[in-house]
Amino acid sequence: MRYFLRALKHFVKMALLVALIYLAMNATDTLAVNQQELLGTKGIILLVALVALSAAYPSYGFVERTIEGSIAEDRDIILETMARGGYSLGKESDQVISFRASGPLQRLIAMGDDEVCIRQIAPNQLLLSGLRKSTVESEFRLSGRMRIKREQEGQTK
After folding, report:
1. Where are the beta strands (DSSP E) in 29-138?
2. Is residue 70 over pLDDT 80?
3. Most buried residue, 2, 45, 90, 116, by most Cβ within 10 Å?
4. Are residues 32 and 92 in the same domain?
5. What letter would DSSP give residue 124?
6. Could you list the residue range(s) of the whole structural domain that residue 128 is in?
């Protein structure tokens, strides 16, 4: 069900984008197709392409990444890093912390799929999951901060 909802949301975003482009081109008289062509074969091809891209989107638009760390030991670093990245704390338990985009525009653009979830999957391993862009950015920030922390701990010993 989650896959279907993500695909549907992506279809709505893509359809709105195509409609805005069509309206802008129509308003500036740069439109290469007329309304009859758009409602005919060309429109059907465009619709099929949007459906196909939207159906595939959840498989390439969402990812999971692993980094070294512990929710219990690195909680402060995780909270600070995610806050600096524009995320606010969502749900939290011993093994899972989820974050949502802080800004209303970010949430609107993501259509509610703005959550980055961090799970403890092994004693010193975290799994990050969510939208590709958000997850990769969070992975980059968190792994760098945790690497610096580990180096500083190694120097003090």
Report:
1. 62-68, 87-92, 96-101, 116-122, 125-131
2. yes
3. 116
4. no
5. T
6. 63-156
Give the pLDDT confidence of 14-38 residue by residue, as tens digits. Answer: 999 998 998 898 888 888 777 787 7
Stronger pLDDT, 73 or 157, i.e. the higher one: 73
Question: What percent of the chain is predicted at pLDDT more than 90?
Answer: 41
**What token pair was written down for 107?**
């949430």
The tally of domains found in the chain comes to: 2
How far is it, in rounded angstroms, from Cα 76 to Cα 122?
A: 19
pTM of the model: 0.75
Do residue 41 and residue 85 come from a single domain? no
Q: Could you tell me the CA-to-CA distances from 40 to 45, 46, 91 in Å, in that order?
A: 9, 10, 48
Kindly report, residue by residue over 33-52, the tens digit of the pLDDT.
Answer: 777 877 888 888 989 999 99
What's the burial of 138, exposed, middle or buried (CB within 10 Å: 0-12/13-18/19+)? buried
CA pair distance 112, 150, nearest whole angstrom = 35
Determine the Cα–Cα distance for residues 44 and 50; give it in Å rounded to an integer.
10
Strands of the sheet containing 62-68, edge to edge, are: 62-68, 125-131, 116-122, 96-101, 87-92
End residue of a domain, out of 39, 60, 81: 60
